[in-house]
Amino acid sequence: MTYQRYELVQLEVANRQTEPTTVQVDAPLERLAYPEFQDLQPTFVESGLDEPYPEEDVTALADNIVAPPATIQASGQQSASNKALGDLDLTQLSPELALRVQAIMRDQSSEPATPSTPTSAAVPLTQHSDRYQGQLPALNFQMHAFSSNEQKRWIKVNGVEYREGDMLTPEVKLESIKPQSSVIIFGGEEIEIPALYDWKG
Question: How far is CA 66 from CA 87, 137, 151, 190, in A?
């Protein structure tokens, strides 16, 4: 008798669990007019990081540099502008890093002073991408190597390494390589493209 009662309870529980519960909720339906779409406007916001620092700030910071008494003199001749860096304390650096810093300072002192060039009139691609969409071919900037030595500057675009003056495609010439970007010439215009940028075309 107890077993039959147990079976009945199990059957009731199974029936309760399998029955679906339906809840009716009234929802008002409202028909709206179809919206009118317009052309999308570019919403690029120019960041202040791309602007060069004013020279007054750099010179003010340079005046505040104080060299500690214990210093290592960089080997080689140094120009008057690099003498302050020649007194730089390199004792806190590893020997390998100290040698690298000395080599860089020596290279900079042996290079002739280049006259300051005005800022480039190149069009930033990131701000004017809609202008070149479908015209400028796809360019995937995979690697970017900038050096103070122009012979050591190179970039890798679409799997091929290029130097300044090379043709990336029959219509695109690599004009210059900057620390954070590259300048190309396309259709007679200079276009500045950020380093490691993937332009889909």
Answer: 10, 51, 34, 42
Domain ranges, residue 127 = 123-199
Condensed to tens digits (0 to 9), the pLDDT of residues 72-89 reads 443 444 444 455 566 677
User: How many other C-beta atoms are found inside a 10 Å radius of the C-beta of residue 39?
Assistant: 4
- The 10s digit of each residue's pLDDT in 117-137 is 445 588 999 888 888 888 999
Is residue 24 a part of any domain in this protein? no
Place of tokens 């060299």: 67
pLDDT at 149 over 80: yes
The answer to whether residue 87 sits within a structural domain is yes
155 contacts 145 by C-beta, under 8 angstroms: yes
Element (H, E) at 182: strand 181-186
| Same domain assignment for residues 143 and 87 | no
The overall pTM is greater than 0.70? no
Task: Report yes or no: 186 and 128 within 8 Å, Cβ to Cβ.
Answer: no
